[in-house]
Design brief:
The complex is a heterodimer of chains A (about 290) and B (about 400). Chain A has about 290 residues and is mainly alpha-helical. Chain A is built from eleven helices and four strands, in the order ββααααββααααααα. Chain A is globular and about 65 Å long. Chain B is built from 14 helices and 15 strands. About 5% of the residues of chain B have low confidence. Classes of the chains: A mainly alpha (about 290), B alpha/beta (about 400). At the A-B interface, α1, α9 and α10 of A face β8, α7, α8 and α9 of B.
């Protein structure tokens, strides 16, 4: 059997594949963070909470209203995105002129409130969300068994990431967005309503987090604290990719997922710190991140 | 000068008002509860446990030795330093008479050290680590409900007798996980089985599939899950998703009824686990659980029931001893047996362990479950002695 550094090739391939699944979640979440930071300059600490709320929106939809997974994929991001818009209008927009620290503190507080409310309502052990019927079963890849649902996560996440990147970097809407952040006054002079654009951008970033939440609901226990442990890693991913760089967020999300996967074989105890170690090294050599502009 | 005198008057007033606030000063008996109130273990013990302790105080009459019994609780956030400093603060400033400590072995070990320094009886309920009555024991610690030794003796020995000889462990990488793995490994080896290795998983990992594939690669027959709460649930779910449960039998070394409830019987069916108590054992357990359910809208876990039993046992000991003196109350608690809905003929032995029967359970299939929360069937009843084994001699206050 072929071996790489003493590990059989199928093991390495299997772990890379699983890393890609986890990396897909990192990519989707860090993408939303990067969009919000890049266009609004807000460090959105509530991102993990919106991810959790997305998963709960899917759970409540199925449990109380009978809304299936496929509808939840559309509805949950809309509902949570709308909540994000309300929060942006009522609270966040007053802080744009202040130090970014204020936005960070506000969103951190909102995250704690959201977690507290959900824990009070649903308890800390969480709820189970079934894998949709159409995606049950497994693929036998030869070197590993891959559940169909996890393959779907990779495909869906790549499609979402590519679409977002395309809209922002390659369309007229995207160029307006970018222009509005560079020079809001000038763009406003062209008759474009900048506050509305900013509001919708925040809503879209939040909706992306909620969508990741729905995608993750069938693979993990839906739990009020599910976002808080993940969001810290995702922040590290964004920092490594370069704050505000959309392409950087996607690529570093996927790559770090795979690096983490390999760590789980070589030295599992370190698998929850390897991302931070890489962050420290990257910051040392390239303070703006791998794809960030100095 | 005027400013100074105002300040001085203010300080004097503040001091005058502050003094009577320090409670427990002779006219009250203070019971404290330090637990994970909001984190990953809060469903297992948490608010429900505090509620159970309050039920016990109310049932006792709210007074002992003519003094009002006061209950207060605090959140240790799963941080040993917070748990220990809260305990110290209560002991120094509020004259706390007894402290109940909830989930998390790491925090309970830190709190036991304060119990020893401050001479305050400390009842650990929810922390699994058997070290609390071995190398980390104190004359003031009582370990109630269950421990890693009892869990391993119940679950591991049952599975190995059913043919699961070779084991691979998924271990939560902290004090609790390693103690549970050690206890289970000991039972496996003693029964002629073998351990093929382990993978140590960081607490609250977001994905378990990588670790599970390594377990599967070992070729072992049994997947020993030496973890708890969300980690236990997520690892079991992933094991099913990846088809690992088809070739390996999962062993839930610590699972609470709240975990089974949230996993659902479809996922959890067939699991073998050990518990120190179950709500549906007999008429007494059902009667108490009915009262608990009316308040919390959930059936109690073994820890929550133990909070009631332990609080009652303490109050009875204070009454019988006629004092809250820690040494006399500890002696009284070790002298009297526990006979209530939680335990029949339970007793606190010299090392502080509350010895009582344990139950090896199998989770029912959805079709076997006849009413809400009907989750377990009893495979085996173990006597307290069988569950916990003899005193090990590792506790310096309790020779072999």
């Amino acid at each position: 059997m072929t071996e790489i550094f003493g590990y059989p090739l199928p093991v390495i391939l299997g772990q890379l594949m699983l890393g890609l699944v986890n990396g897909s979640f990192y990519a989707m979440l860090s993408l939303g963070l990067a969009v919000i930071f890049g266009l609004l300059g807000v460090v959105n600490f509530a991102h993990g909470a919106f991810y959790m709320l997305g998963a709960y929106a899917a759970y409540v939809g199925l449990d109380s209203l009978g809304i299936n997974y496929w509808f939840a994929l559309v509805l949950a991001p809309l509902v949570v995105g709308a909540l994000g818009i309300v929060l942006e209008r009522l609270l966040l927009r007053h802080l744009y002129k202040l130090d970014p620290l204020y936005g960070l503190l506000l969103t951190f507080g909102l995250a704690l409130i959201a977690e507290g409310v959900m824990r009070d309502r649903f308890g800390s052990s969480g709820q189970s969300y079934p894998v949709p019927d159409a995606l049950q079963g497994v693929f036998n890849l030869g070197f590993m068994i891959l559940p169909i649902y996890r393959a779907w996560v990779i495909v869906a996440s790549l499609a979402i990431c590519f679409t977002t990147w395309f809209v922002i970097e390659r369309t007229r809407l995207g160029s307006t967005l970018r222009a509005a952040t560079e020079n809001p006054k000038l763009v406003q002079a062209f008759g474009i309503n900048v506050p509305i654009i900013v509001m919708l951008t925040y809503g879209a970033g939040v909706a992306l987090a909620a969508l990741a939440g729905v995608l993750s609901a069938p693979v993990i226990q839906v739990n009020p604290l599910m976002g808080s442990s993940l969001v810290i890693v995702v922040f590290a991913v964004v920092v490594i990719g370069g704050m505000g760089s959309i392409f950087g967020a996607i690529v570093s999300g996927l790559v770090l997922g795979m690096v983490e996967g390999l760590t789980k074989v070589v030295y599992p105890e370190a698998s929850n710190v390897v991302v931070f170690l890489i962050m420290a090294i990257v910051l040392f050599w390239r303070p703006a991140g791998l794809f960030g502009k100095e | 000068m005027k400013y100074f005198s105002k300040t001085a008057v203010g300080l004097a007033l503040a001091a005058a008002f502050a003094a009577p606030v320090a409670f427990g000063a002779g006219n009250e008996v203070v019971i404290g509860d330090i637990d994970d109130m909001a984190g990953l273990y809060s469903d297992v013990t948490g608010q429900g446990a505090a509620e159970a302790a309050k039920m016990a105080i109310a049932d006792f009459g709210g007074k002992v030795l003519g003094k009002k019994v006061v209950f207060r609780s605090a959140d240790h956030q799963n941080k040993p330093d917070i748990g220990a400093s809260k305990f110290r603060e209560w002991a120094d400033q509020d004259g706390v008479n007894m402290v109940l400590g909830g989930s998390n072995t790491g925090v309970s070990i830190a709190m036991a050290k304060v119990a020893l320094a401050k001479k305050v009886p400390f009842i650990a309920i929810g922390a699994a680590g058997a070290s609390l009555t071995n190398q980390d024991c104190t004359p003031y610690t009582v370990h109630y409900a269950y421990d890693t030794t009892a869990l391993a003796n119940g679950t591991a020995s049952t599975i190995i007798k059913n043919g699961g000889k070779s084991w691979f462990f998924l271990t939560a990488d902290y004090a609790f996980g390693t103690q549970l793995r050690d206890a289970a490994t000991k039972v496996v080896l003693a029964n002629g089985g073998k351990s093929l290795g382990e993978v140590r998983v960081p607490l609250s990992a977001s994905d378990f599939s990588s670790f599970l594939l390594q377990a599967q690669g070992s070729g072992a027959q049994v997947l020993g899950l030496a973890n708890a709460g969300g980690d236990f649930m997520n690892s079991l779910k992933a094991a099913q998703e990846f088809g690992i449960t088809k070739t390996m039998k999962p062993a839930a070394l610590l699972a609470f009824i709240s975990d089974i409830h949230s996993l659902g019987l479809k996922t959890a069916q067939g699991l073998i686990l050990t518990t120190g108590w179950y709500w549906d054992l007999n008429a007494d357990t059902r009667a108490w659980s009915k009262r608990y359910f009316a308040v919390m809208k959930k059936e109690p876990t073994m820890n929550q029931a133990a909070y009631y039993s332990a609080t009652m046992h303490y109050l009875k000991a204070v009454k019988a001893a006629g004092t809250t003196d820690p040494d006399k109350v500890m002696a009284q608690m070790k002298k009297t047996h526990v006979n209530d809905f939680f335990a029949k003929d339970g007793y606190v032995r010299a090392d502080g362990l509350m010895v009582h029967p344990h139950y090896v359970m199998q989770v029912k299939a959805p079709a076997e479950s006849k009413y809400p929360w009907d989750y377990y069937k009893v495979l085996k009843v173990m006597s307290g002695e069988e569950a916990y084994g003899p005193i090990t001699g590792m506790c310096q206050f309790a020779p072999k």
